[in-house]
Amino acid sequence: MAGDSLRGARLGSASFEDATGVTLSPRQTTEYLCSNQHITSVIFAADAEVPSNWDCRQCSQVAKLRNPSQAEQPEPETKVARTHLEILLERRTREDLEILLKEVLADLKLRRKNAS
User: Fold this and answer.
1) Which residue of 25, 58, 102, 106 has the fewest CB atoms within a 10 Å radius of its CB?
2) How far is Cα 12 from Cα 110, in angstroms, rounded to an integer?
3) CB–CB of 63/40 below 8 Å?
């Protein structure tokens, strides 16, 4: 029984890894000011949308951004959904598509005729 016990490190008590060679993601520090003049600093990711209000850590009142320009980030461009026809018209002219349609319909009629 004595040979089965674990000796040395305590399991789960401490990490054996260190922080050398670890690069953190880009971050930004944002400061909020409440009506009682408490300053609350919050760290966000660099590409995160910064809220204009935050709860004060000392008095729990609503704190506002000290630098409102941080909240004004450009809106991401939204992709407009395109139809299949619009995508085809980017690659071919309408006349080319008409010719291709006639060829495909003729081929389809021929296959149906041969199948029966």
Assistant:
1) 25
2) 74
3) yes
Handedness of CA 36, 38, 44, 47 (dihedral sign): positive
Q: What is the pLDDT of residues 51-83, one digit of tens each?
A: 889 999 999 899 999 877 766 555 667 788 899
What 98-107 contacts at long range (C-beta under 8 Å, 24+ apart), as own/partner pairs, is none
Domain ranges of the chain: 26-73, 82-116
**CATH class name, domain 26-73:** mainly beta
Q: In the 3-class helix/strand/coil scheme, how is 68-100 assigned residue by residue? A: HHHCCCCCCCCCCCCCHHHHHHHHCCHHHHHHH
Identify the weakest region by mean pLDDT among 23-27, 42-46, 83-87. 23-27
What's the helix, strand, coil split of the chain in %, to 5? 30, 20, 50
Grade residue 100 by pLDDT with cuts at 50, 70 and 90. very high
- Say how far apart CA 95 and CA 93 lie, in whole Å: 5
